[in-house]
Request: fold
Amino acid sequence: MKRSVGEHIFDAINVLVLIIFMLICFYPMLYVFNSSISDPDQMLRSRSLMLLPEGFQLEAYKSVFKDTRIYTGYMNTLFYVVAGTAINLLMTSLAAYGLSRKDLMGRKTLMKMITFTMFFGGGMIPTFLLIQNLGLVDTRLAMIIPGAISTFYFLIMKTNFEGIPTSLIESAKLDGANDFLILFRIVLPLSKPILAVMMLYYAVDHWNDYVGPMLYLRSQELYPIQIIMRDILISSSTEAMGAGADTGFAIGENIKYATIIISTLPIMLVYPFIQRFFVQGALIGAVKQ
Reply:
């Protein structure tokens, strides 16, 4: 079909708006990266948009990686991400499958009780007292068990499971399959896109978790990378202040930007591997009741 002039104009404006939006999103990352590798003195004098690095140096990265705690922090974070995400997906899938079945007794009441927790909670202090009474303070389980299920992610997965034909599940039951077999052999293989999206969301939540470790961890050997980065930034900035006000500020800024890159780059590299699932599954589980 021949496209009208108005349609071509709309496409051009649409592409232009999307390009502008892309640049707005990309520029902060470019600024942080260029600032992390720029010469501190030149960066301090320049005050430019940092579209290109001002000089070149890797001293900020060397200063960060010189601290051996960063490797322990990475290993701890990887454990929290892998183990935590695995438990998240398992628990969320079990809950979502059970409550997606319309023949479940008390289904509506359970859904109301679960949805209630999205808007009302005990707060930080009661939650800490609960974790303390359970004996989870200063343990790895404190980073995994309390957030085993996110109500919002559960609702997304439940809605996705409801879209699977009931006839398929009934046929499996006629063949003698139980609910666990149906979930792991039929429902989950048909839900790979939404599982990939949930995996990314949960993994990012674990990677970026800062408040949880601050509240529940006491031993440095259990700290994730976010807490280690904070400690390195504080100690490095304090040392840099001895070099003078301006120079110390510039060095501190370099280290700050380097820590941002080091702490965010790994999780950003995961996205391209599941991007094809992300686009397909992001809207599959749009929340509806």
